[in-house]
Amino acid sequence: MTPYPINNPVPINPIMKSLIVLLLLSLISAVAQPVDIGSRRELFTGDHLVQKLEGEIVLRLHHPRPREIAIEHDALWEGTGSGYHSIFKDGDIYRITSVQLRAVWDYVSCSS
Fold it and tell me: In 3D, which of 93, 91, 97 has the Cα closest to residue 78?
């Protein structure tokens, strides 16, 4: 059995109602503000930065094209594979880190 009748909602404190209304209004006003991207390039993979599309404008993600090898992992300490790379800016220098994988294969011979 529920503590409140079905046709009566749970009572909410008036202060809590005011806080909920303020929170919802702040969310609506935050969404309405344009995002200043300046002159930097942006990858538009969704509608987060696009308010509306008019005319023949469409969002299109082009297919990758094979090119030359950008990063080669051929040193012994790099292991047998790479999980992913992270590129970050450290002052004026761009640095790259990667997760290296090392597979160890044990071959066991069984005979009866």
Answer: 97
pLDDT, tens digit (0-9, with 9 covering 90-100), for 58-70: 887 888 899 998 8
42-59 pLDDT per residue, tens: 777 667 777 788 898 888
Cβ within 8 Å of residue 94, ≥6 positions away? 87, 88
Residue numbers of the domain that contains 31: 14-35+43-101
Looking at the chain, how many residues does it have? 112
Residue 68 is assigned to a structural domain of this protein: yes
Residue carrying structure tokens 């300490």:
77
* Phi, psi angle pair for 47, to nearest 5°: -100, 20
Q: Residue by residue, what is the 3-state secondary structure of 51-79?
A: CCCCCCCCCCCCCCCCCCCCCCCCCHHHC
Task: Count how many domains the chain has.
Answer: 1
